[in-house]
Amino acid sequence: MTKRVAILISGGGSNMVSLVKAMTEDFPARPVLVLSNRPDAGGLQKAAGLGVPTAVVDHRAYNRDRLAFEADVTAELAKAQPDLICLAGFMRIMSTDFVQRWAGKVLNIHPSLLPKYPGLHTHARALEAGDAEAGCTVHWVTEELDGGPILGQARVPVFENDTEDTLAARVLVEEHKLYPAVLHRVCDGINQPLYLP
Ligand code: GRF
Questions:
Q1: Cα–Cα distance between 141 and 51 in angstroms, integer?
Q2: Which of 106, 155, 163, 193 is close enough to 135 for a disulfide, judged by CB 3.0 to 4.6 Å?
Q3: Is the full-model pTM beyond 0.85?
């Protein structure tokens, strides 16, 4: 049965684009919604250009009332009836209520080799630590920030002259391979983590 996938973004949506483009006819999932918390997110135009319905729930319109914001996100998601929800460059931390409402359906991609560097500024932290490698992780979303069961990881070397930007760009190339590959496995019921290369 073809899974219905909603994708949440906050910015350019390059991971969303790679997911949508991967969901061709013979892929066991198709995109049913791209939702952003930012009306100016560049990914919204890209999604529309790819023929995917979009929605905006602007978190700034809720006057810091997180639960009201999440209730409207949930209402938009419920209309699309997703089997899976992929957070892709989505920069809002969702409450336990939201995670429980969508339990077992939410995936996220994080730009570090979790459990190293949960949270922000992952590449700066890897460079600061002098790590020889870095990468990205796709995981189930649970109440613990960036702490859910790992579904896949991709590793890249860190070079002497790397900056945050050069390292982020190298990792992003792998993110665009990892997320679709992991989504395919999840749709096929494969929960063992995938490690690239
Ligand atoms: C990516 O590094 C992703 O890992 C992080 O947000 C960055 C931008 O993602 N969560 P995208 O280009 O908006 O998909």
A1: 27
A2: 155
A3: yes
